[in-house]
Amino acid sequence: MKLTARTLRGLEWVAAAEIERRLPEATSIRMGSREVAFEYPALDAALLRLQSVDDVFWVVSTLDGVGSTKDAVTDLAFRVQRLAWAPVLAELRSVREIPDGFFFDVVASIDGAHRYNRFDVENAAGETLAPLLRGTHLARTAEGLSSSDRPDLTVRLFVQDGTAVVAVRLTAAPLHRRPYKQATGPGTLHPPAAAALAMVAGVTADDRVFDPFCGDGTIAIETFLQHPGIAFGASDLDPARVENARQNAGRAGADVDFRVADAALIPWAELDATAIITNPPWNNAVHAAGGAEASLDGVWRAARPALRGGRLCVLADAKLGIPERLDGLGYQVGFTTLIRLNGRLTSLVVAGAHEGSAPGLSPELRAWRTIAHSGDGKVGFLA
Ligand SMILES: C[S@@+](CC[C@H](N)C(=O)[O-])C[C@H]1O[C@@H](n2cnc3c(N)ncnc32)[C@H](O)[C@@H]1O
Hints:
eight-stranded mixed sheet, 11 helices, Rossmann fold, 2 domains, 383 residues, elongated, alpha/beta, VC0802-like, binds S-adenosylmethionine
């Protein structure tokens, strides 16, 4: 079967490496802009545990000869209806629950010149599919879903240049919406970005990791889920965010030591950390406060001697110039890349704490990054 994983722009190569590592039966892995396509023998629960991707879809069919005029919508809806939906539902039910009398929605994206819009396609396909699937179609308008019910199933239609790709989301909600993450505050991190950060940082189960700006605990939890049992400590100045992090970690089953602390006053030598992975305040959704209010430099400066050959991995708005700041403070910047997060250009930086310690990527990540950089299109590269 053909599957496609959606990613943040700039993280395609991290997702491709994760798919290759965690899904040994995946073949024909190919990167495109904001997606990684691959072949897989049959649905299984491992697909639902991918962490660096936003979502995974099963491509049920690709329909050619889709017209661009208004009357092409009815024709497309009937062709979608004629596909073999019973085996699709049975296969999905082999990896997750879909209740009887379920709710479903149809989400279309239309690229190129067409005399219809996404709502025309979504509503026509939804109406023709409802009796066949024996589900209730949740119609969508420009304001969102017409009902407060949540879909148990999403049918995706990607219409482009006379072709319609028909797909279904493997999960009921997008994969990036983690069930554990219910307590959140401003500027909380997108979980796939947190997971990618831990992968690029090259964390292993033997590391002792710390996040001094932990917010709701996303980085700690995603790292713990990759390496169950890892020693992870985390702190934040805001007691409410630390409480959120504790609750989220409890739901995720992640055993992380969360504390309230000003990052500028952390006794680094006592922590004995081998890696810091963090997403500091960007003075956008959340402002730096306490001892970090004027600059983050004091935190990086204080941590460096205690890291003893370890790594500092930072995800922050590109305008903060983190690589240059770290370079000026004696860190060895080993790797930087740009991703697009919430519409903003964001830099991901991995630096070593001491001379000659510039960390590199793992061979698998390096190989996928090289592929993304070469060939026909520079996939997902922003600079
Ligand atoms: C971008 S948010 C981190 C979001 C986090 N990664 C998450 O997933 O929720 C930055 C965090 O830095 C915290 N912060 C601001 N100044 C601080 C300081 N001096 N020491 C520690 N935390 C601070 C804020 O309370 C906020 O939670």
